[in-house]
Amino acid sequence: MLHFLLAADTWAPYPKWLNPGDNAWQMTAATLVGLMSIPGLAVLYGGVMQKRWSVNSMMLSFVAFALVLIVWVLYGFKMGFGEPMHIFGASGGSFFANMWGKPATILGHAAEQGQAVVPSITTGPAFNFPQSSLAYFQFVFAAITPILMLGSVLGRINFKAWIPFVLLWSSLIYTVNAFLIWGGGFFSQHGAVDFSGGYVIHLAAGVSGFVAAAVIGPRLQRDREVDAPNNLLMVALGAGLLWMGWNGFNGADPYYAGADAAAAILNTNLACAVAFLGWVAWDYITGNKPSLIGSVNGMIVGLVAITPGAGFVNGWGALAIGLIGTTLVYFALNYLSRLNPFRRVDDTLGVVYTHGFAGVAGGLLVGIFADPNMVLYLGTNGTADISITGLIHGDGGHLLKWQAITAAWVIGFSAIGTFILLKIVGIFMPLRMTEKDMEMGDLAVHGHEVYPSDVPSLSYPSGFPAAPPAAPAPVPQQPTS
């Protein structure tokens, strides 16, 4: 062992292309994003739902996180970021030649330790970290998407049906959107941008969750009428993990620990803060009390809205996006929700508003506020090598047009694909829990509750299971003569 240590100083600890600072930040940021799901969203869901749905909400989150990781390393990463598949033999710049990546595993030693690469991206500098860092960073994005979608169907989705649905949706919906927008596919080739997932993650999750809620059907009527969180401390903890975790969500998407990463983090927090405060202000203006749940919605809206353009806009643009986003979603959630089709669909946590509406608003606002002076990467002469220009900075509307076209694709493809996948899963098992199981909740599905059994619940109103009926007293025998 001593000989090994003495000889090691003649070896390089990493290849020349690897930058330890960039690699360390990428892994740290990926962990921050992972914490947004586990435990962030799991805890938030567990606290915001009624007590008898707390365990179920957290279990559905954990199982989705695990399932997506298996999909991702076996074939999903390459489908989103690998070589184009050339569907139907298409070639050149056509849509089907640049729609989807070829599936392949990344579990071999060369795939894990080799330099990260996204073959269809031909501009910008090469990655300074291994493919395993890129794959894990992109995995936590892929994993959080179905968990966000889950917020629309809490309180009635069948746990057994959730498992194959997550596998299918992550494989067939998420990877397509990721390749088209992030992997160098058709929309990215025409100039559409999504800095960190306003379209690929949030818009897709909001639309798919809404469709799933419509297909599966509503919760029990009493759950809709008495929709009281069981633990606001858990809600605050989960929301705080989301806010801080978003530093990794947006801060590592330049793929370098440079100036644009720092600007993206500051812009993220600016938009979040102004959206949170804007939501509180609208509560006062409309005569409502500023609630924790409502304010958390405002916070999430700000984070979602800035996500498509965190590193493309300056600080003024971030403030504008946060305020515009929270205003649009506030009125959509409180007033548009009363109109069809929204009032007819039981979207449990309003994901279509806080993620769907906020995601599309943020994506379109990038087409307006993107500042070409926000330099993503420097060229060899020290000037901007890659920058994005919005409408108010003289773009002329090209970026805004492709942002709108891309949003329309994500909405249509995610909605239709989700509907088809749910119907396929529904052939083999019920999508919806039975009425009896919905009456009991966690006890019926998982066999235990989130709090000790001496706390009254809808399943055991007295706090304890009903005692078995007492055996009848023995009848005394009459003496015989």
Please provide a written account of the structure.
A hairpin with a 5-residue loop joins strand 1 and strand 2. The chain is globular, with a radius of gyration of 25 Å. The protein has 17 helices and two strands. Helix content is 58%, strand content 1%. It has helices at 2-7, 20-48, 54-81, 109-113, 131-150, 159-181, 186-189, 198-216, 221-225, 232-251, 259-285, 292-306, 315-334, 351-369, 398-428, 435-440, 442-445, and strands at 377-378, 384-386. The longest helix has 31 residues, at 398-428. The protein has 481 residues and is mainly alpha-helical. Mean pLDDT is 90; it is low at 1-6.
Short characterization:
The chain is mostly helical.
Task: Throw out a few tags for this protein.
single chain; 481 residues; mainly alpha; two-stranded antiparallel ribbon; 2 strands; globular; disordered N terminus
